[in-house]
Each structure stands twice: as structure tokens, then as C-alpha cells.
Specification:
Elements: H1 9-30, E1 36-38, E2 59-61, E3 74-78, E4 84-92, H2 96-112, E5 117-119, E6 130-141, E7 146-157, E8 163-174, H3 180-205, H4 215-224
Helix pairs in contact: 2-3
Amino acid sequence: MTSFSGIRPFSVVALALTAAALAGCTLVETRPDPSRFYVLDAPAAPTPDAAVPAWGFPLAVARVRTPSYLDQPQLVSRAGGSRVTFSEFNRWLEPVDKGATRVFAGSLAARLGVDRLALEPALDIYRDGVLVQVDALRLDGEIGGEVVMHARWRASAVHDGSTLLAGERVVTAKCSGSDYHSYAAAMGAALDEFAARLADDLRSGVARNAAGLPVKATAAAAGAK
């Protein structure tokens, strides 16, 4: 019969616990992290057209309001109809509304050729400007399919809040592949397309309804024609 009289029982237990802890540490250290992180971005910065005059008004862009179900780090996509899925390991590096505002405001300003752009919290620094507000009712789609952006928008005078133009629009952007990288890129493309269409609306409509804007802005727009 083998005797363990030379080893105290608590020493055996301590050795066993130490070995288990070391084994656990080894398993954690060698496990790869499957998480991937994304940011929204426009397809490419639009090149200003020298033949198209600058818009002439200072521009203020409020935070783009996105659906509340997008207010989380996981990428959200449609799985047919009204069913949505959340990807645990494909995540945004910033809040969706913050990224959407950055992409939309940059694209809109570039397409209008404005040199004065205000963002929150300083929307009223250009009192002779135009404030654009966007409320996205939907900004999602199917992986490998297309992204849909459905949003209401409003353009108003900064100095008194009076409405100059308002509307609602749906735009789409196709995914170039069946992965989350292509899906995130399509979301950025949808925001860029929405900005492009809205820039056309603002160019054609605000000047006609600019009587309520300060003289400085109205005169600048007239000179840009």
C-alpha cells in the first residue's frame, strides 16, 4: 500500500488548483477574438463640379435620427420581412447615429459646395444659414441584398426656425458581396445617395423660399446663380 504521509493533504489540493488555473489561462490566451469592427463611410468623396456654382447659404446639419433598434454595438440586418438579426461578432466602432451624421453631413456639404458647415451642438453659429434635419425611419437591409434608407427631412431657417422645404424619400444601395464589410459599405452608400438627392432639392427649392432668410444669405445665394 502506498503511503502519502510525506505530503500534506492541503498541499495536494493547492497543487491541483494551481495546475487547473494555469491550464485555464493557457486556453484563454490562445483563443482568437472573432470580433470585427466597422465604421460608416461614404463610397468616395464627391468631386466638386466647377460648372456648378456654390449653393450660397451656410449649412447646419442636425444629428441624423436613426431607428432605436440600431442603438447598439451589434450590426443589425434583415432576415426577410420584418424579422431582424443581430451579429454578436460584427460591431460598430461608434454609435450608428453619430456615423450616419458624419457621412451625411460631409456628403451634403461637398455636393452643395458650402464653405461654412455647423454641426451639433453649434447649429446656430451661422444665423443666416439653413438647418437640415433628417429622421430616418429605416436604415438597414439584407446581407448580400440591398440597404434601404427611408427618411423624412426638413430644411429651415436657422434664425427663426421657419420651414423652407420638407419631404420624404426612399433610397437603396446594393451590397457588393455577402459579408458584413459589404453591408456596412452599402449603408454608407445609401446615406451618400440620400445626401445627393437632397442636395438637388435644396439647390432648386431653398432659393425660391428664401424670403424669410436674413438679407446676407439671400444676397449670397442670388450672387451664386
